[in-house]
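Before surveying the methods themselves, we first show a specimen of the format, giving the amino acid sequence and backbone structure tokens:

:::
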Amino acid sequence: MNGSGTRTVTGRRLAALVRERCADPGLARDVEVVSQVLPFKVSGHVIDHLVDWKSAPDDPLYRLLFPHRDMIDPAHFRAVERALGDPVALRGAVAAVRDALNPHPGEQLTRNIPRHDDGDQVEGVQHKYAQTALVFPRHGQTCHAYCSYCFRWAQ
């Protein structure tokens, strides 16, 4: 349960949930593999009331909120899938895929990091635009959806 009394389903239980609701073992396997790379959680309210499971994976909310095979390169998918039974190999495969996911466009690892007066970087913050600063709390890195415009990957 989270603070609002709603249960949260995380990556490990997600594949079983998709298998149960969709009766599609291939779709469940996709979720199992991709959720290893992209940490994921979804609220019980979304699961029980918002996703049209008869239409998954084409239901718009399912498409927005659940991991999909096409979120990672096919070769990366296969590497993670092969490593699923071996925790050490899985950690290595997942780390390699995550390293390859974000090319850090626009020099975002160096150019957009604010600095203190002494020149030290301000960790966990990016200053993208004049009016905004992005804050990346260390314990807040699990998203409820993966957006194509996400700035979190570099963190």
